[in-house]
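Amino acids appear as letters; backbone shape is given numerically. Here is one record.
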Amino acid sequence: MIRNNKRSLVVVFSICIGIFVGLVIASNFSWTQNSFADSEASVLTPGAPQSMPPIKSDLEATSRAFVEIAKRVTPTVVSITSEKVIKVRDPFSNFFGKDEFFKRFFPGRGRGDKEFRQNGLGSGIIISADGYILTNYHVIKDADQLNVIIDKKEYVARVVGSDPETDIAVVHIDAQNLPTIRFGDSDKLEVGELVLAIGSPFDLSLQHTVTSGIISAKGRSNLSLGANLTYQDFIQTDAAINPGNSGGALVNIRGELIGINTAIYAGNGGGNVGIGFAIPISLAKEVMDDLISEGRVVRGYLGVGVETPDAELSEALKLKVVGGGAVIVELVQGTPAHKAGLKKYDVIIEVEGKKIQDHQMLTNLIASFNPGDEVTLKIIRDGKVALKTVRLAERPSVNGAGEPVSESSVTNQLGIQVANLTRELAERYGYDNDGGALVSKIRRNSVAAEKGLRRGDLIKEVDRRRVRSASDVEKIIESLQPGDIVLFQIQRQTSNHFIAMKVPKS
């Protein structure tokens, strides 16, 4: 009996030892369930959000860079509102303006001109702490009143100067200590770079809209964006640009201004389709500096009309390389090109050692020189290479309507300004570009206005002498005396007219 009891105790003890060892081994291998005290922290509940460590990536760094750029740049981008008064002639005023019976039954009709106010919206960029703002010419064009909005405060703006040939304008407001943008180098841009566009699309409620994209292409030209837009070297981007963004900033990943948002290829709805254009800041800055210091842009002038030769023309001109260069299709008499001995059909392939890719590059490059500069041109004439040295003159300056700044005293007395008939002006007014001088401005109440001369008339003869340029007109008129009668033959659209007027005595 005692032996049996001892045996039972040994068995019970062995079982306890086995259970203890088993628990120790199981706990080391996590085979046992956790205690209730730590179940809240470690038990996984299906469907509950899991706490994961944050992922560091280059995308996050790029996102933060965009945020910092937006914070830095948006205070320097402003909204510009414009107001233009348009007068419309009431057609009934000529027939029933004084008829009381008509006025009784048709109130409001026959009262002469009616005025309508047209409002516009664009963007601008603060370039100096004392109130100078860079924008597009078409944002401020023909405006009777301009206002700049900064931090919900409205300032009256005045136009410092404008250049329709690049679509650049500078306005000024009376303000101090304004935030200013930092300029970049658009010449170093590469296709594929990330950019941000900032402006006020569509409505003032959308001020400081920031969109992103890349540089899609560089050096875009020959775009149909306006008859006066002579100098084209656009940056193309897919960053969303919409109406109202004009004059706003295109900045690089460092927050530097590299372009002025200007135009889009619009879809059927008139909105962005991923093709927008900006003026490179390298071009815009040159114009901006001239406008601020001189009030106008001073450019070198050669005096030729040029185009880029295609394959057939290259073969006809005996060019070894198809394309490239700029062939002279028009030569203006008395200009630097004419004096240097250049001829029609000459192909300009280099200017000061720089190879000319197309006619737009030649136009832009000549304009970058100062009047009086001597430049060496490499040309091809009848298959042979030659060098020509040309002393550039000052390109006739134009404003929005294409008027030259300079004029002779007698043309001033008559009340007219004239401009050379360029290819752009010929296309704008519907003339064949075979020479002549275009009436670009008529002063109100002048002799010319009273005699019916109109802006856009093409002067073909003065005093029965053929004219081929604005200088021809001025030379003939300048030789006249007060009291002389001067006879103009002009073309107006498709018809010809004679207009005679007397040179005033003062």
Q: What stands out?
A: The two ends are 155 Å apart (CA to CA). Residues 103 and 302 are 60 Å apart (CA to CA). Residues 2-28 form the longest helix (27 residues).
